[in-house]
């Protein structure tokens, strides 16, 4: 069992965060933290700190600051999942409305979305081109792209053929240490392969080990052909 984190560390974290993040968006008041203690699930965890971040630089800074103090954190987009993965008893990171940018590309064949875009709004942007995003979760009028991608959301119509994993073309990823990879940028990919060679080689080794085990490989492929709505179990 992981030992509890001392309150003094959260106080230290708050001071560090306030050096670069507006204190108005660092929530520590008990009543407000209580309000953030639940999502669409029946679970309840009261966060010690709630962050409302408005930029990539703030996200990187928050992640690195938590990491230096050994404090765990959880991201929440809209919090519509029924499985409880958007609650935290530590640091809860949420996003301001500044993360709603979008860009329709190639006459609607692709769309670039920030994680704060609501799923239904993404479809509105694509409607003039008679297209829509692949996933169609029941909460699409509320859930956001960040959660849709993170949860590999699908839906009653798209099944597994057009879920998030199968329809994402590229992504900007922030790793746990704050390192940023943009899979759409060849220079970023090349730099990642060089600077994070140990991670790339480790993943490649796991891949080769899995492929060498035909029984395990077939089991994984079979599992990914099925829909597994965890919240309904």
Task: Sum up the structure in keywords.
two-stranded antiparallel sheet; Uridine Diphospho-n-acetylenolpyruvylglucosamine Reductase, domain 2; single chain; D-lactate dehydrogenase (cytochrome) activity; 3 domains; 4-stranded mixed beta sheet; 37% helix
Question: Mind explaining what this structure looks like?
Answer:
InterPro entries: FAD-bd_PCMH, FAD-bd_PCMH-like_sf, FAD-bd_PCMH_sub1, FAD-bd_PCMH_sub2, Oxid_FAD_bind_N. The protein is of the alpha/beta class and 233 residues long. It folds into 3 domains: 7-98, Uridine Diphospho-n-acetylenolpyruvylglucosamine Reductase, domain 2 (2-Layer Sandwich); 100-173, no CATH class; 174-225, no CATH class. The chain is 37% helix and 12% strand. It contains 9 helices and 8 strands. The strands form 3 sheets. The protein has a 4-stranded mixed sheet, covered by helices on one side. Strand 7 (172-174) and strand 8 (180-182) form a beta hairpin. The longest helix is centred in the last third of the chain and has 15 residues, at 197-211. It is globular, with a radius of gyration of 19 Å.
